[in-house]
Amino acid sequence: MLSERFSISIAEVIIYSLLLPLALFVTIRHGMPNSIGFFYLCIFCCLRISAAALGIASENENHSNRTNLIWSEILGSVGIGPLLLAGFSLIERVNKTCNPNSIPRTHATRMLHIPNILALALAIVGGVRLSSNTPSQQRSGREFAQTGITIFMAVFIIYTLVCLATLRAFASVTKGEKKVVYGVLLAIPFLFIRILYAMLAVFKDNRTFAIVNGSATALLCMAIIEEMIVVIIYCGTGLVAPVEGEQKKKKKEEVGEEKKGEEGEGGRGRQRMQQISP
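The structure corresponding to this sequence follows.
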């Protein structure tokens, strides 16, 4: 009989194999550097397919050789980083279209990349050491993982504040970019649940949330489903959000029409003045 994790891994391979072409399409649609956020989704999908494939391969491993299982769990535990990076890029894109008051928000979002990458590195090192059979390695691995997840949570809180600050300036956001704001805000609760699961895994000494051989149900309900929802939201946002070139062209056309309207009204006004004057 197939294990729960094996079934979940098969589902992940199928779903992310479908989402990867969609993420690639959105990335190409928007073009670099505007699509960097969507490019992170491509990286995330590749990570998830690799992790799930290793999880499937681990079913045939004996208990003395758990290499595939360990790397499957490690790759599965580093999904927070790329999803946050995608969110940073999307909200930064929105703030670029706002008034000059958005400059501090844009700089704050850019600065978040540094601690996010640091947290990602700590999470990977922590995951590798936690999978060791040596108690000292496991202790240091837990410390690395706890530090990494704490940084992730701090980064997420700042990111959420930046999103809320952007929402306060919603009136200055262009019509097309408002769709991006909706997508970013919609994904925040699911990102929080995902980070909360990671915190429980490294801070709570509970078998249910263990990184290796933890509860498949908890993993599915608090991590895997949330990640899929975030990827779908971001990809959907990329499909409905305007491409920057098209948006600038549309804006120029609107400005041109306004100028023509003003010139037309001015001409009609002069004609009326000429008719009235003796």
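The chain is about 80% helix and 0% strand.
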